[in-house]
Amino acid sequence: MLMQRSPNPAAWNYRLAIEFDHVRAELRSPDRTDRLATTVSHWALPTDRYVPRVFLGHTLAELLDTPFDKLSATPSVGPRKLDVLIGVLRRAAEVVPKETSNGNGH
Fold first, then answer.
1. Using one digit for the tens of pLDDT, what is the confidence trace for 58-100?
2. What is the end-to-end Cα distance of the chain in Å, rounded?
3. What is the pTM of this model?
4. Domain count within the chain
5. Residue 67's domain spans which residues?
6. Cβ count near 86 (within 10 Å)
7. Within 13 Å, how many C-alpha atoms sit on residue 1's CB side?
8. 81 close to 52: Cβ distance less than 8 angstroms
9. Which of 11, 48, 62, 90 would give a disulfide with 58, using CB separation of 3.0 to 4.6 Å?
């Protein structure tokens, strides 16, 4: 879900930074570390408009290790594209992990 655009760009950027930190914490939780080696393009859908192309080949770990200020300073990546990127990261965080086999084939 895209955030409502605030009339104040600084406030919107602050909200994006908070959301990025929240999603970062979720993806770094022990039950989701298997996703960190996948690329952003793995999680992006054809319907995701404005996904920053510059980040599509990066792994989730690379993005999560990058400070939000550096991501937001990337040329041609504004608040709208960051919002979409955070949505893709949120999707990666929310996917239910596959159940592991108990050794009996079940």
1. 999 999 999 999 999 999 999 999 999 999 999 999 977 655 4
2. 36
3. 0.82
4. 1
5. 11-94
6. 22
7. 4
8. yes
9. 62
